[in-house]
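in:
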């Protein structure tokens, strides 16, 4: 009878240990999913993008270095140091500001060094996409001439494209 009692104690103990192991694995997999079974999207699917709706309840990315694009046109300077940008009817302004640092502040005056635009005035920019460090915008004239460009925080350049001839670039004479 002693062996029978030992078996009755060992079997529930083994079942309890197996159950604890399985539940532990389930909990760990829910906290730390396996990296081998992730779905990676090269391009956003319709379910991943914000729907275009006719009301003002669409979420906006705010409290970012480019937030004043939403508020006004022409914009205040967008300090994406080491350069700063300003969007206006004359086009995209680019500045390489001289940054002054003190114990309590950082100051960089905006002076347009380069302006890219058309002979005709551009309308308010349209945000095409927002990344972690960059934003892609498009501006168009009333004649549908379009200027598309990417502004990146911390990048000392911008990439712009134009599908029609007539893009104007104006440089400020400087010492750089």
């Amino acid at each position: 009878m002693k062996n029978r009692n030992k078996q009755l104690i060992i079997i529930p103990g083994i079942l309890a240990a197996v159950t604890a192991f399985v539940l532990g694995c389930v909990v760990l997999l829910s906290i730390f999913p396996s990296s081998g079974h992730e779905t990676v999207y090269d391009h956003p699917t319709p379910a991943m993008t914000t729907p275009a709706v006719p009301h003002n309840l669409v979420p906006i990315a705010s409290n970012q270095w480019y937030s004043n694009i939403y508020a006004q046109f022409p914009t205040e300077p967008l300090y994406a140091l080491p350069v700063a940008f300003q969007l206006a009817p004359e086009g995209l302004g680019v500045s390489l500001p001289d940054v002054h640092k003190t114990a309590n502040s950082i100051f960089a005056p905006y002076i347009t060094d380069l302006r890219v635009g058309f002979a005709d005035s551009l309308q308010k920019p349209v945000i095409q996409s927002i990344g972690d460090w960059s934003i892609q915008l498009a501006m168009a004239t009333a004649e549908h001439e379009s200027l598309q460009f990417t502004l990146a925080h911390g990048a000392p350049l911008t990439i712009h494209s134009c599908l029609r001839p007539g893009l104007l670039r104006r440089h400020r004479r400087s010492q750089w």
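note: The chain is about 20% helix and 30% strand.
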